[in-house]
Amino acid sequence: MAYIYPKTYFGDKIINTKDANLSIASSAILYGLSVYTVFPVIVNKDKKLAFRLHEHYKRLINSARIIGIDTFEPQWSEAKFIKAAEEIIKTNGVKNDAFVRASVHVCEQLPGTRSRGQKTVLSIFIYEAKPILPLSGARLKTSVWRRIPDYAIPSRAKVNGAYVNSVLAKQDALDSGYDDCIFLDTSGHVCELSAGNIFIVRDNILITPAVSNDILEGINRKTILELAADLGMKVAEREVDLTELYVADEIFACGTSTLVAPVIEVDKRKINSGKMGPITGKIQKSYLDILNGKDKKYSNLLTTVG
Ligand code: PMP
């Protein structure tokens, strides 16, 4: 298990992580009614940098809006949220790259299956950053479990309960000896991995499923689309067939805890030569430079948090 830092922001104060608990009778526990986001903190020699805090706050708010959790947004402005995040990062004296998980929990007890007008509590805790896929190359399996459609549980909302879908698919992939799964939508188009978005390269065009293809609107996906456009690459957001993966020149996954991970095999089919491709390599390097604050052009995406 990854190391969890000892202090957590909970409600409106900092407490010991071991004391940051929710009732077994809360909606968060009963129905998985919490929305969340995870952002990285990169520790450089002289400072700590948090990546795209504005987008993470916005997605948290959007997730709450979709689910109908309406008590968080009026209480938590972006400035207040960012101040709380900074405070908890400083209090824990984070020394190595870390992930910060901010969640809005519906803590009302036994309210029945509803979301409006319910008490909420914000938690922010920090844990050691460990990539979830091998950066040397991941092997993926198309899942027998389909991605939850927008008309059932919207993938666009990062809601805890929906992650049962990811657990089913990831465990199925692990049981079969793969690193992760590929989710298809109900009509068989490619969506994403259990906790990361997917890109393929065909004839020098970078292609990724569209936001209307039952995916989480990944913040790193957005970053890579912006970066690729800046590098002069052709990009397309469109439906992707499963068999396009088998014949792709390159495939990679992206996400906060995935970084940019080359995919070298899908369903026992080697992707091209079975090694990281040149476009993936270029994107991976440029992305890591942005994240580590080495690319001044993108320094506006980073907030100094200590
Ligand atoms: N899809 C899913 C299902 C995820 O859980 C994640 C991780 N948050 C992503 C994509 C990637 O999103 P992000 O780039 O914002 O980390």
Keywords:
306 residues; alpha+beta; D-amino Acid Aminotransferase, Chain A, domain 1; 2 domains; eight-stranded mixed β-sheet; 7 helices; 15 strands; globular; binds 4'-deoxy-4'-aminopyridoxal-5'-phosphate
Question: What's a concise summary of this model?
Answer:
The protein is α+β, with helices and mostly antiparallel strands.
The largest sheet is:
8 strands, mixed
- Percent helix, as a range, is 25-40%
- CATH fold topology of the largest domain: D-amino Acid Aminotransferase, Chain A, domain 2
Arithmetic mean pLDDT: 97
Structural account:
- The chain is α+β, with helices and mostly antiparallel strands and 306 residues long.
- It folds into 2 domains: 7-128, D-amino Acid Aminotransferase, Chain A, domain 1 (2-Layer Sandwich); 138-291, D-amino Acid Aminotransferase, subunit A, domain 2 (D-amino Acid Aminotransferase, Chain A, domain 2).
- It has 7 helices and 15 strands.
- It has helices at residues 27-31, 53-67, 78-91, 163-175, 219-230, 242-246, 278-291; strands at 7-10, 13-16, 34-43, 48-51, 98-106, 120-128, 138-142, 180-182, 197-202, 205-208, 234-237, 250-255, 259-266, 269-270, 302-304.
- Strands 7, 8, 9, 10, 11, 12, 13 and 14 form an 8-stranded mixed sheet that branches. It has a 7-stranded antiparallel sheet with strand order 2-1-6-5-3-4-15.
- Strand 7, helix 4 and strand 8 (180-182) form a beta-alpha-beta unit.
- The longest helix is centred in the first third of the chain and has 15 residues, at 53-67.
- It is globular, with a radius of gyration of 19 Å.
- It starts with 6 loop residues before the first strand and ends with a strand.
- Bound molecules: 4'-deoxy-4'-aminopyridoxal-5'-phosphate.
- 4'-deoxy-4'-aminopyridoxal-5'-phosphate (PMP) is lined by residues 38, 166, 192, 195-197, 216, 218-221, 255-256.
